[in-house]
Specification:
CATH topology: Dihydrofolate Reductase, subunit A
Structural class: alpha/beta
Helix content: 25-40%
CATH class: Alpha Beta
Number of helices: 5
Number of domains: 1
Strand order of the largest sheet: 4-3-2-5-1-6-8-7
Distance between the termini: 18 Å
Largest sheet: 8 strands, mixed
Low-confidence stretches: none
Oligomer: single chain
Strand content: 15-25%
Order of helices and strands: EHEHHEEHEHEEE
Length: 197
């Protein structure tokens, strides 16, 4: 059995929306897209690459899949350490609007009950599965107690608005800190294990 790890870039006030670019996700009138980029350093890069390379596959929501599929297959040479795992490892995409066959290498559509399908994927042997971004999908997985670990990169930045990882109305969840480090730019890289109910 393998674990499901939710990996997210967050601001100090818990915003996860559009870390990578100004037009990544403007839903709700969000104007702060690309907020993560100024905080990148070697420690950050190493943590991201180790996380990607250590995964057995990725579970993605439709929006994150479309953003990644448009970028990573043709990523520049200097980004191949991240592009390699993303392009080559299995990707399972939860969507009610996409149709098979998905163009990005090693991508499989989860068109049915995402909770049942992710539970089945967790039962398989192999390295852990990683969810990146995919805010709405993560909400579903958290509500159904499928998340085993959180890999959070908390940035020293408060945005005051945007979509949050942990939202109002969620259930209580005890976590155990299993690893932590700080980058030269003040990003806290934290790993938490969930305590199962």
């Amino acid at each position: 059995m393998r674990k499901l790890v939710v990996s997210e870039f967050l601001t100090l006030d818990g915003v996860m929306q559009a870390p990578g670019g100004p037009d990544e996700d403007r839903s709700g009138g969000f104007k702060h897209g690309g907020w993560q980029l100024p905080y990148f350093d070697d420690i950050f890069a190493k943590a991201v690459i180790e996380g990607l390379a250590g995964a057995g596959g990725f579970i993605l929501g439709r929006k994150t899949y479309e953003i990644f599929a448009a970028y990573w297959p043709t990523a520049p040479a200097e980004e191949q350490a991240a592009a390699g795992p993303l392009n080559n490892l299995p990707k399972f995409v939860a969507s009610k609007t996409l149709r098979e066959s998905l163009a990005w290498n090693n991508s499989t559509l989860i068109a049915g009950d995402v909770v049942k399908e992710v539970a089945k994927l967790k039962q398989q042997s192999g390295k852990n599965l990683q969810v990146i971004g995919s805010g709405e999908l993560v909400q579903t997985l958290m509500k159904r107690d499928l998340v085993d670990e959180y890999a959070l990169m908390i940035h020293p930045l408060v945005l005051g608005s945007g979509i949050h990882l942990f939202r109002e109305g969620g259930s209580k969840q005890a976590l155990k800190l299993i690893d932590s480090k700080t980058t030269s730019k003040g990003v806290m890289i934290l790993k938490y294990e969930t305590e199962k109910k």
